[in-house]
Amino acid sequence: MWWDVNLLTLFRRNLQPTITYWSVFFSFGLCIAFLGPTLLDLRCQTHSSLQDITWVFFAQQFCLLVGSTLGGTFKKSLKLCLFILFICSLTISLVFAIIPFCEHVGVLAMVMAVAGLAMGSIDTISNMQLVKIYQQDSAVFLQVLHFFVGFGALLSPLIADPFLSDTNCIQSNETLNGSSNLEHIRNSIVPHHPVNVSHYVLPLKGPVLTNVSYAFWIMAAINLPVPVAVFLLMYQKGMVPGCGRRRGSLLSADELAMETQKEAEIYDEKNPEIHEEYSYKEGHGVHLLCCQSKRFGNAPYTFFAIHACSAVILFMTDGIVGEYSGFVYTYAVEEPLSLAHKTAGYLPSLFWACITLGRLISIPVSYKVPPRTMLFFNLVGMSASFLFLLLSQNSILSLFIGTASLGLFLSSVFPSMLAYTEDLLSYKGCATTVLVTAAGMGEMVLQILVGMVMQTQGSHSFLVFGVSLSILALSLFVMLLVLDNIHPIGASGKTPEPGSDPDRYQQ
Asked: How far does Cα 243 stand from its chain's mean position?
C-alpha cells in the first residue's frame, strides 16, 4: 500500500489541526509574493520614487525575521500558539484591506512591517506544530505545508495581474526616461536593492489612475476562511473563552503528547539528579537547553554543531532562492545573452513554477525517501544545475533548462532539512526557530550581497556566486552527515520521550 495504515490513522486523528496549519501557510504564501508585481502601482498610490518604495521590501523582510524569532517563544503552549495563528492570519486579511488606503510610503512600510511580523510567526509556529504532532513522520506533512506556501505565492500575482496598470499610473505631461516600458521596470525591481532602479525616473505628481485596490480586496476575501479555520480549531480544543465545548474521552495525539510531557516535566522537577543523568546520556537535555537555557554544560558539542550546520545550509539555499529569482532577469537582459525584456521576464515565473511543482512531487517522494537522502540529491542537483549554467552561459536554451532544474532541486530543501535536523535532535521543536530565522536572513542578506557584486564585478559574477554557494552548502551537508554519526543520541534521533518508559525514571 502506498500509504502506511498507521500514518493514515495518525493523520485522521489530527486532520483538523493539520489542515488548519496548511491553510495558515497558504496565507503566508499569499502575502509574500504580491509586493513585487504591485510595487509600481503602490508607488503611484503613495507618490513616492522607485528608490523609496523598494524599502518597503526591507520593512517586510526585517519584521519577518523578528516574527520568526518571536514565534519560537510560544512553543510551550498550544493555546497560545493557536491564538497567535488566529491573530496573524486575521492580520494578513486586514493588511490586504488597508493597503489601498495607504497614501504615504512610510505608512505603507509600517503596514508591511506588521504583515512581516505575522508572516514570521506563522512560519515558525506552523512548522513547529507539525513537527510536534508527527515527529519522525513529519517529513511528508512538511512537504505539503511548503507546497501551500508555493501555491499562495503563485496565486497572488495571478490575482493582481489583471489590475496592474499598463501605462504610468501617475498621469503627467512630462516625458521622462524609463516610463515607456513598465514591464521592464517591474522585472528589474529587486527586493532590498534599490540601487538597481536608480536610473529610472518616473513622475511623482499628478492624478493617480490605478485599479490595484481591487486585487488587494480580493486577496483579503480569499484569506478570510483561514482565521475562521483557526478559530474553529480553537473551539474544538475548548480554547475559546465563553464557548466551552465538552471534550470526548479520548485525547488527540498532540494533546496526549502534551499531557505526557507535562508529567515528565513535573517528575524532572522532583528528581533533578535523575533528570541530569538522563539528560547527559539520552539527550533529554536538548529540550531543557533550547527551551529553558539552564544547563549548557550537559549538551555535547555536536548539539551546537548540528544547529550551526543546518542553519548555515538553509541560510545559503534560501538565499539562493531569493537572489536567483531577483537577479536572473537582470542577468539575462545583459551581455552575453542580451535577451529581449519580454522573454527574460518568463525566467522568474519559470523558476517559481518549478519550485511549486517540485514541492508537489516531493510529497509522495518524501513518504518513501528519508529526508537525509532527499537533501543529498537536492544539494547535488543544485550544484550540478549551477555548474551547467556556468559552463553553457552563452546558450539561451541552457539558461531556461538550468533555471527549471534549479527550481526543482531547491524546492524541498527547507522542509527536508527541518525534518532531518529535528530528527537528529529528537523532535523537540527546538531547531525550528533557528532554521526559519537563518533561512529568512539568507534570503535578505544574499540579495543585497549579490546585487553589490554584480554592480561592481559584472553580470558574470551572478553564476560564479551561485556555484560557490551551492558547493559550500553541499560541503556543509557532508559535515552534517559526519555529525549525524557521532552525535550521542544516534543517527536516527528517535530516543524515547521522557515519561514514555516509567522504568527509566525509577530510583
From this structure: 34
Instruction: Report the 10 Å Cβ neighbour count for 223.
Output: 25
**Distance, CA of 304 to CA of 308 (rounded, Å):** 6
Instruction: Enter the C-alpha cell of residue 282.
Output: 539520552
Sign of CA dihedral 378, 380, 381, 386: positive
Query: 1.10.10.10, 1.20.1250.20, 2.40.160.50, 1.10.260.40: which CATH number matches 301-487?
Result: 1.20.1250.20
d(C-alpha 398, C-alpha 339), whole Å: 13
The CATH topology of domain 14-249 is: Growth Hormone; Chain: A; (1.20.1250)
**Joined grid coordinates for residue 93:** 486579511
Domain boundaries, the chain: 14-249, 254-299+501-505, 301-487
Instruction: Quote the distance between the C-alpha of residue 97 and its chain's center.
Output: 23
Are 221 and 97 in contact by the 8 Å Cβ rule? The answer is no
Q: How far apart are CA 190 and CA 474, in angstroms?
A: 27
Q: Taking the model in full, what pTM does it have?
A: 0.80
Report residue 233 as a C-alpha cell: 480549531
Longest dimension (CA), the chain: 87
Q: Which residues contact 77 (CB under 8 A, 6 or more apart)?
A: none
| Grid cell at residue 216 | 488587494
Torsion of CA 117, 123, 125, 127, to 10 degrees: -170
CA distance 69 to 78: 17
| DSSP labels, 253-268 | HHHHHHHHHHHHHHHH
Backbone angles phi, psi at 170, to 5 degrees: -100, 110
Q: Report how many helices (DSSP H) and strands (DSSP E) the chain contains, helices first.
A: 22, 0
pLDDT tens for 203-223 read: 677 777 788 899 999 999 999
- SS3 call for 208: strand
> Do 14-249 and 301-487 come out as alike in CATH topology?
yes
Q: Residue with C-alpha cell 510610503?
A: 105
Question: CB within 8 A of 120, min separation 6: which ones?
Answer: 63, 64, 65, 66, 67, 68, 69, 70, 71, 436, 440
443-498 tens-digit pLDDT: 888 888 888 888 888 888 889 999 999 999 999 999 999 988 887 654 344 444 33
Contacts for 271 with CB less than 8 Å, ≥ 6 apart: 505, 507
Report the C-alpha gap between 196 and 444 in whole angstroms. Answer: 16
